[in-house]
Amino acid sequence: GRAAGGCRTMPEDQERRARQAFDRADADGDGMLSPDEVRTAVEDLPQLWAMLEVNTGIERSKCQEIATSVAMCKLDLNGSGFLSWQEFRALWTSVLNDPKSQLEFYHMAMFSAFDTDGSKTLDPNELATFLDIFYKEGSIFSGDYRLPPKEELVQLAMSRLDLNRDRRLSFRELEPLLTGHLQLA
User: What is the pLDDT of residues 106-123, one digit of tens each?
Assistant: First the structure.
C-alpha cells in the first residue's frame, strides 16, 4: 500500500524534527529530495533499518540502501523519483508515528533485502535464502520442533502462499509468513 496522510496533523515538535530532517537532507536546496538525499535522511532514522540489520546480519549500508528504496517506493506518490516536503512528511505521519505501519515498513524492507533480482517477487531460490534466517544459529526459531526442514518449508510456503501459481511470491503473497500467520502444521 501507498503511504497516505501527508496532511495529517502531528505534534509541533515532531513537525519541527521532520522539517529539520528534510532541510538537512535537501543538499541542493531545491525543495525536493532525490534518492541520494532521501538516503541521507534514512541514515539518521535507524528505526527504518536497524531491525533489518540485526535480524539478517546484512551490513548497515546495504540495510540503509534497502530502507531508502522502500521509502521511495512507499512515499513517492506522484512517481517523480523525488520526494516533496508533503511526501517526505508522510514518513512521520504514516510510518514513524504508527507502530503497525513501522512494522509493515520493516516487512517490506525484509522482503526487498532478499529480492536480489529486483523483480518485486521472490523465486524459490530467493525464498530459500530468506528462510535461512529461521535456521540460523541464534534465531528465535533455532531448535523449534515445529520448524520443518528448510526444503520442506520452501515447498510449503510456495504451495500455501503462491496464489497465482507463478512460482514466485509477491510481498502480499509472502505477508502471512512475515507476520507469523502461516500455519506450518
Answer: 999 999 999 999 999 999
> What distance in Å separates the CA atoms of residue 80 and residue 58, rounded to the nearest whole number?
29
Q: Alpha-carbon distance 5 to 75, whole Å?
A: 10
Q: Are 124 and 154 in contact (CB under 8 A)?
A: yes
Phi/psi zone of residue 43: left (φ > 0), alpha (ψ -120 to 50 degrees), beta? alpha
For cell 504514516, what's the residue?
Answer: 94
Alpha helices in the chain (DSSP H): 12-25, 35-43, 50-56, 60-75, 85-91, 99-114, 124-135, 150-161, 171-178
pLDDT at residue 71, as a whole number: 95
CA dist 90 to 110, 123, 138, 150, 167, Å? 21, 32, 36, 38, 34
* Cα gap 159→169, rounded to integer Å: 10
DSSP bridge partners of 122: 169
What is the C-alpha separation between 61 and 40, in angstroms, rounded?
Answer: 11
89: pLDDT strictly greater than 50: yes
